[in-house]
Amino acid sequence: MIHFKEISRTQFLKEYWQKKPLLIKQALPNFISPMPADELAGLALEEEFESRLITGSTKSQDWSLRNGAFTEQDFTNLPAQDWTLLVQGVDRYIDEVHDLIQHFDFIPRWRFDDVMISYAAKGGSVGPHFDHYDVFLLQGSGKRRWHLSSKNCEMDNYLDDAPLRIMNTFPVEQTFDVEPGDVLYVPPKIAHHGVSLDDNCTTLSFGYRAYSAREMHEFIGKTCPKNLDTYYQDPEWQENQDPNFIPESALKQAQKLLDINAEQFAQFVTKLDTNDVKILQEFEYENPNEPLTSHPASKIAYIEKNGKRQVFINGEPFRKSDLLKMDE
User: Fold this and answer.
1) 144-177 pLDDT per residue, tens
2) Which N-terminal stretch is annotated as signal sequence (predicted)?
3) Which structural domain range is residue 113 located in?
4) Which has fewest Cβ within 10 Å: 24, 158, 171, 296?
């Protein structure tokens, strides 16, 4: 688990989650990243990994974006500094990365999206930007300087001619220097800009889903809510809560956006995206004699209704008859 030093976990859930950023120094003491830079570059050579190369800086504003898969020559041709490699969904394939998610299980697991890992040469960044989702930024190696701002986080504040979303106006309010084992929590709509301070900078981003009213409306096909661009807000999570449990308080938050019942919400939060469906379709279970475990690409959650527990897996309710099918 994350080592909160100056505050308690309960205080974090009450005062910081989805409200304001927090730097947790040495949240994971003596942390050694399971994904060195050369191995991350190796993943970016493979077709199954979603990867990007970003070059540029806020000083020059000469941003470029390329999508993988890449070749070894692509890396050879990179400049000496001001570039970043990003690889999405590393937790789906690398067990040691997937195992790190448990450190953040004070947030429900069904809210989790994936782990993106970045490597940056000195000066490398992806520019100042904001997201609609929560993220824990774990420094894996090297050093990075983070600038944060709560101002001008609006869609009309992006550069018009940039190949990626980079804020035009970014008034810095906070600055943090991070080292391996440090974790920076950034809530939705807090602008952040991380710049590598050396040539050995890797950062692991633990991202959480942002549920829009539009996305939920399209999933359940109910009456269109008034504002499709609003986002679900979490309730105040309780410490030591089962990370797979969907409490009624979460459902009530979703119902502020549109008419949705507990079963529909559970199906929605456990549904798979296209890439995860593909991963599971291609997966081959090698040893049927081993105990069953959930695949990193799968999503599992449960609700309690009328004193009974109802489990949902990958967007579908799980029934006892499904166990019989698995034994056949």
Assistant:
1) 999 999 999 999 999 999 999 999 999 999 999 9
2) none
3) 9-208
4) 171
